[in-house]
Amino acid sequence: MSAPSAVGFGGRFGAPVLIGPALNPINTTMISVALVPIARATHTSASVVIWLVAGLYIVSSVFQPTMGKLADLFGPRRVYLAGLVIAGVGGLVPLLAPTFAGALVARLAIGIGTSSAYPAAMTIIRDQEKRLDRKAPQVLLSGLSISGLVTAAIGPVLGGLLLQHFTWQSIFLVNVPFAALTIVLTLLWLPSDRTRSGARGTVGVRSLDLPGMLLFAVGITSAVFFFLHLETRALWLVAVAVVALVGLVLWERGQQAPFVDVRMLASNHALTATYARLFLVYTGIYLVVYGFTQWAQAVAGYTSDAAGLLQLPSAVGAAVTSLAIARTPRVRGPLLVAATASVVGGVFLLFLDVGSPVWFLLVIMGLFGVAQGLSSVSNQAVLFRRAPAAQIGSASGLSRTSVQIGAIAASSILGPVFGDAPSDQGMHVIAIVVLALAAGALLVTVADRSLRRSVNEPSASL
């Protein structure tokens, strides 16, 4: 049997790299169909059980860049395996503690564990490029985005099947075989961290930049809690977030090995523009996905199953467009189309009402599916090529934080917009917000000069 490093970028290398990162998105969407059964089984109110969703968002927002930093320092394979173990153990918790507390602990553990997968996978691919002295195929990088898009789409379907045939604990237990399989494949087929170019022998605690991690965690968590409780009495959380993030910038400017390299972000306009695009586009997409589902059931009178089927064009659009550009190194065109699709979708939403025909609803969801597929693959390609090689893990984690905060921001906007119940007028307000976000993404894309080059060309900013 050949050494893992000799496998190149073939199927053996790709399988474990692609499976693990799918666990976070599938857990994010799979829980949506399990909230009511869990609330009933554990005698928990709807306002409390929603923390199963919020909890994973919070830990993912904080731990994705944290795990990425650990991958940069200690080696991605080690961090990848550690995260998979945590996720697998987390999946077992509800069997031992079939309570809401047990479910919440499991969700937090799964969130922490799966947060290692994407940044570690990106670092593993970058390390393999150095070993082989050749670039990874674009289709492999696109595969990371595509696997996340596909698994996020099938999450509710898988969750529904599990709940139909098993207890609510199966929603958590399903992580165990996925994690176990990925651990085995990682041990068999991924190169050891000892073979990394410039691998470190021992990393000191100071290299972790614990104060920077703490300031980042406080800032992001405060901002997330504010978004979750978007009201005047929660404004103190904004003050905490601002103080923590300003403190983070000041602290990191004086560090040789910062947790968040603010100097690099200030000079690497391609990377900061990527984070901005991800936040703008995904906030709009999540607004539509969450808002449309509620509107379809409460206003248009569709059943929950039918409302779910109405979102099928979104999944299909994302899958088809992401596959269509999987091999292209050019990203400016797809990103412009993604932003434009969101603009057109926002315009269509302005004319949405209770009498809208089914085909009109399907077209709207398809447009935002196109936006998601093109944005995910193209922004990831920019991230991989424009982030400094030594910081690819933390940079990748920050990209996921941008998306997670967008999802939370979307959820917080829907509350005051819909008020007591969804309405046509509420969806029109959502349309205006989506248009503003899409216009912002379009402007950022047009202004980003680095996009005029292929992602395989060297960046002048690095």
UniProtKB/TrEMBL annotation:
Residues spanning the membrane: 48-67, 79-97, 137-158, 170-190, 210-228, 234-251, 272-296, 308-326, 333-352, 358-377, 398-419, 425-447
PROSITE patterns noted in UniProt: MFS
GO molecular function terms attached to this record: transmembrane transporter activity
Membrane topology: Multi-pass membrane protein
InterPro entries: MFS (IPR011701), MFS_dom (IPR020846), MFS_trans_sf (IPR036259)
Name under which the protein is recorded: MFS transporter
Superkingdom of origin organism: Bacteria
One GO CC term, this protein: plasma membrane
PANTHER family the record matches: MAJOR FACILITATOR SUPERFAMILY MULTIDRUG TRANSPORTER MFSC (PTHR42718)
Location relative to the cell: Cell membrane
SUPFAM superfamilies attached to this UniProt entry: MFS general substrate transporter
Location of the Major facilitator superfamily (MFS) profile domain: 13-452
Species annotation: Promicromonospora citrea
Keywords associated with the record: Membrane, Transmembrane, Transmembrane helix, Transport
